[in-house]
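for the recovery benchmark. tokens below, seq after
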């Protein structure tokens, strides 16, 4: 039972949540929040957090004589994480409470953090939390046989509200607007026909001096245009801003100065890059060189960014300052030592084969970073958000050369590239899987998200990044869940270049860069375009990589009403977890299922004039097969003659051994016989944890969402699997062009049936798209024969 209370008192608020459900958590359980609390959106600050836990471990261990009754060596604990509305960690999760070692009686612990306390680390954490963030608490257990028995958790959060007139800039409005800068004076019109852009001249000065700049229009078509460098960076916190001075040259040779506000992170970058003397440094900086308030200009300039970065003499990557951050200096120092050795020990007189170069780099990296795991952990403590920013892939990939700057220190791209590659190799995974002595989350963590390994050719000798062979845009967008963007539309626009079917300059207007369209319009247009281009509904399976839409429930509370989502229930939305792609049935390009046989979607229907009237509706053709009457937990241990096909599907989407925690970017854990044996062992261990838990022995695994049903209309042994947000009354359908079956839910609306010119039943009923569905013995086209045999008519389903 979970209770949430929010009390408002003037400009102060108090929110509390309490849950008293008993459950046990072992190493194989999914990382599911026990309680969570969303900070009110109008919050200006979080001032105090109080968390109490009631729990204990399994009551024994091999080292109970040594550590029993203390917190030393305890492998059961509680994690705290802060998640942004776009499904990213605001700060790294951390352990805030361990259970007493080898004590089997419930014990209450209370943690209190206050902004006025002397605990600087916790004070800093409180100051980072923003309105709309969700604070989650996860009971955890690590290593074999350790079990966390949870009785109750309560959390109380206190904070203050913003003034009504206070507001943050949205994703389109640039910070410069808040200063009243005259955009018409600063931004001279660009001539698109000549591929014009603007360049910033950064005038010399001492570090403490005000920043003074000017802006000049140049044409990329003019071979004699001013040479410039392109800056690649994170905009940073929009709540913090600094002022720079923009000089405007007048006809009478006088100069007029305008003040412009920029983010603090960009301000620090320009201060560190400014020359002390000599000529101005010429830079291309998106936040300044593009008039962000002009959606037409913004669309054209964003579409031209590959050329802008390719034309630059080099790209300067700003990672951030190292002041008061010794962990950054430590990590960057290791890279600088590697760079020095690369330069001094590399034999320029000989030609290295790829294997020889890899061995050369690996030897040096292993010497300078003897413990790759610890270095990875330290790197992620640095808070380098740069590698998680959506645009940087395009900026790095189009660069001639790239230099990474942290404070006044720098290293070149080849060094960073090699470090990224070697810090995610299978050597780490193998060691951790066998030893089991490190947190499994370390395995999935590198110094860059997994999408880097798919797009950028890492470890190359060239000074600029090289692209790998292009993947499909759908695969790229799913992997881009791990990336951040101030504007959700950029999660598509910034990545179009990397796809084999979307990088063409003559791109369909459905997908072309256009900031006049809303985010919802951008992605509904994209889904229609993708379905019509590929003649497939495979994209619908990507729903299960999105926030709150996975097969397994990973959050606390009831599933959200599909009618209250900020996007149509059928639309791909760029907020989710890329790791969930492995836990889908029909997303893979070479998947094993072909539920709709050789049928294809009706392209004319999808692009019918009705879509212009209501673009939130997607019309698809198919047949309804069954209605779910009851959903149970999957009886994995007491299922008579469990069909292998059904068992394999369950293992894929629910990962009951939680082996996905050991998967590194680009790996698949279903191909190796050795790994399959490990999965079986973990599955057995998972069951044992729960068999000694509060519910005792059961035929199912209690921490996995109910998913099992029988499609009785198709036979008593037509077993099915459904995702966690399915419910009785949902209908099972086969849709033309779909590799799997799908679940639909009738939306609340007055029904009215009719018939169209093609003889198909049309319905004014609207349906919400729930997700994928599995039907045993029907996954390879058999349903179409059943449809014909039983005379089930074709229908047009209007999805909303």
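predicted aa per position
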């Amino acid at each position: 039972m979970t209770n949430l209370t929010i009390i408002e008192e003037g400009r102060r608020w108090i929110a509390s949540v309490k849950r008293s459900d008993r459950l046990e958590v072992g190493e194989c359980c999914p990382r599911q929040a026990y309680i969570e609390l969303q900070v009110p959106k109008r919050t200006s600050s979080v001032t105090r957090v109080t968390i109490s836990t009631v729990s204990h471990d399994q009551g024994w261990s091999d080292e109970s004589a040594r550590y029993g009754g203390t917190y030393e060596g305890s492998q059961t604990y509680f994690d705290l994480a802060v998640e942004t509305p776009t499904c990213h960690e605001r700060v790294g999760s951390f352990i805030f409470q361990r259970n007493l070692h080898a004590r089997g009686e419930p014990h209450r612990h209370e943690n209190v953090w206050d902004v006025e306390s002397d605990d600087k680390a916790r004070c800093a954490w409180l100051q980072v939390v923003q309105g709309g963030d969700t604070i989650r608490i996860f009971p955890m257990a690590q290593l074999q046989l350790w079990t966390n028995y949870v009785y109750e958790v309560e959390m109380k959060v206190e904070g203050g509200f913003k003034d009504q007139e206070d507001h943050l800039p949205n994703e389109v409005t640039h910070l410069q607007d808040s200063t009243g800068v005259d955009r018409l004076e600063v931004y001279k019109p660009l001539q698109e026909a000549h591929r014009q852009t603007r360049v910033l001249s950064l005038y010399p000065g001492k570090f403490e001096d005000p920043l003074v700049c000017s802006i000049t229009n140049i044409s990329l078509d003019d071979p004699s245009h001013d040479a410039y460098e392109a800056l690649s960076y994170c905009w940073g916190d929009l709540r913090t801003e600094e002022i720079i001075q923009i000089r405007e040259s007048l006809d009478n040779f006088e100069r007029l100065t305008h003040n412009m506000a920029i983010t603090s992170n960009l301000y620090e970058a320009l201060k560190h890059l400014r020359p002390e003397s000599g000529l101005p440094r010429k830079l291309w900086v998106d936040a300044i060189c593009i008039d962000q308030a002009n959606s037409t200009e913004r669309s054209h300039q964003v579409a031209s960014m590959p050329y802008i970065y390719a034309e630059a003499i080099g790209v300067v990557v700003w990672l951030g300052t190292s002041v008061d951050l010794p962990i950054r200096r430590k990590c960057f120092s290791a890279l600088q030592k590697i760079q020095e050795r690369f330069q001094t020990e590399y034999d320029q007189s000989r030609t290295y084969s790829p294997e020889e170069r890899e061995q050369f780099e690996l030897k040096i990296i292993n010497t300078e970073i003897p413990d790759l795991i610890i270095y990875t952990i330290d790197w992620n403590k640095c808070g380098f958000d740069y590698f998680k920013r959506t645009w940087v892939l395009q900026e790095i990939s189009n660069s001639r050369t790239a230099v990474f700057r942290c404070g006044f220190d720098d290293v070149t791209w080849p060094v960073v590239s090699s470090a990224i590659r070697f810090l995610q190799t299978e050597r780490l995974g193998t060691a951790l899987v066998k030893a089991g002595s490190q947190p499994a989350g370390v395995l999935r963590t590198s110094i860059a998200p997994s999408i880097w390994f798919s797009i950028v050719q890492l470890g190359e000798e060239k000074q600029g990044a090289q692209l790998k062979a292009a993947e499909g845009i759908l695969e790229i967008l799913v992997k881009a869940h791990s990336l951040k963007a101030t504007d959700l539309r950029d999660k598509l626009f910034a990545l179009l270049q990397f796809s084999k079917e979307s990088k063409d300059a003559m791109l369909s207007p459905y997908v072309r860069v256009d900031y006049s369209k809303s985010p919802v319009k951008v992605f509904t247009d994209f889904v229609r375009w993708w379905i019509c281009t590929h003649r497939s509904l495979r994209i619908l399976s990507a729903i299960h990589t999105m926030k709150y839409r996975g097969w397994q429930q990973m959050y606390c509370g009831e599933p959200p009403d599909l009618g209250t989502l900020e996007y149509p229930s059928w639309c791909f939305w760029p907020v989710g977890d890329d790791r969930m792609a492995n836990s889908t049935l029909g997303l893979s390009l070479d998947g094993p299922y072909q539920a709709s046989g050789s049928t294809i979607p009706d392209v004319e229907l999808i692009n019918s004039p009705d879509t212009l009237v209501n673009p939130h509706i997607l019309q698809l053709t198919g047949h309804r097969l069954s209605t779910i009457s009851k959903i149970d937990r999957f009886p994995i241990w007491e299922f008579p003659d469990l069909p292998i096909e059904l068992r394999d599907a369950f293992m894929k989407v629910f990962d009951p051994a939680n082996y996905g925690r050991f998967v590194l970017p680009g790996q698949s854990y279903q191909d190796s016989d050795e790994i399959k044996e490990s999965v079986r062992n973990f599955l057995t261990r998972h069951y044992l944890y729960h068999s000694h838990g509060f519910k005792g022995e059961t035929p199912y695994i209690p921490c996995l969402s109910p998913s099992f049903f029988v499609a009785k209309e198709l036979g008593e042994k037509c077993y099915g699997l459904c995702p966690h947000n399915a419910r009785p009354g949902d209908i099972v359908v086969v849709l033309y062009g779909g590799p799997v079956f799908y679940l639909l839910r009738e939306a609340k609306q007055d029904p009215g049936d009719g018939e169209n010119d093609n003889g198909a039943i049309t319905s004014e009923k609207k349906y919400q798209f729930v997700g994928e569905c599995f039907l045993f013995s029907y996954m390879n086209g058999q349903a179409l024969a059943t449809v014909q045999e039983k005379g089930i008519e074709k229908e047009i389903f209007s999805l909303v």
